[in-house]
Amino acid sequence: MNPEARKPFIAGNWKMNKTVAEARKLALEIKNGTLNESDDVEILICPPFGSLYPVSEVLKGSAVKLGAQNCYWEKNGAFTGEMSPPMIRELGCDYTIVGHSERRSYFRETDEWVSKKARALLDVGVSPIVCVGEVLQDREGGRTNDVVRGQVLGSLDGLTSEDMLRVVLAYEPVWAIGTGKTASPEQAQEVHAFMRNILIDLYGLDVALRVRIQYGGSVKPENVTALMGQPDIDGALVGGASLEAASFLKLVSFKTGGID
């Protein structure tokens, strides 16, 4: 594989954390902390819906990009509590997370829903971060590849090769999210390589080599360099470690071992 063609991508998923005031403060700290960063890494933060606009105002003029944590696939209508892709685009979001394990688990979202969301986002110029991953029982039962293959195929259903060049994938073993457990770099690489081979089968070698695949699951400053050193791991989708500027900035600067 040729990882040099894929720009490293560090994204912070704040989940249901931070008031608007707290979100603005954290965004400003991240913005100020990345002013001297090179163009070697793409940086994204995904606040809760209520903070998207205030944070977008903070991030103006910076290299830090804004993303949403979810969406609904319809453009408008009687869907109480939902946000549409056009609304997300208007707020200045470049990316939106879809299919996160918490959405799949707590809200029973299916691969079909994920693919609908991905297509709807692409239609308005927002890139989806499509998440897949197995639970502990699947890992221990030797079903990781079957589960991941099914989620990749279902979640990308209907996407063309051109679409895939604007899609980011994220492998997040559910057993490693917020648990303190982390897949070893070798375990993560094995699944990332497996996913890239699926992309080769679906879209051909050229496209597959250009799609970025992030790892998500208790990523911390202590393990990010080893994870990012794997040939098919192109970034990190970070939860808890993105809620403090100091730890997130260390992740962003993984190549140099962190910001002092």
Question: In DSSP terms, counting alpha (H) and pi (I) runs of 4 or more, how many helices?
Answer: 12
Q: Which structural class matches the secondary elements? A: alpha/beta
In CATH, the homologous superfamily goes by the name Aldolase class I
As for the CATH topology, it is TIM Barrel
Shape: globular
Describe the structure.
By secondary structure, the chain is α/β, with parallel strands linked by helices. The protein has a single domain (3-256), classed as Alpha-Beta Barrel (TIM Barrel). Helix content is 40%, strand content 14%. The chain has helices at 20-33, 52-59, 85-90, 101-106, 111-123, 136-140, 144-155, 161-164, 185-203, 205-208, 224-228, 245-252; strands at 9-13, 42-46, 65-68, 95-98, 127-132, 168-171, 212-215, 235-238. The protein has an 8-stranded parallel barrel, surrounded by 5 helices. Helix 1 (20-33) packs parallel to helix 12. Residues 256-260 have low confidence and may be disordered.
Short description:
The chain has 260 residues and is α/β, with parallel strands linked by helices. Helix content is 40%, strand content 14%.
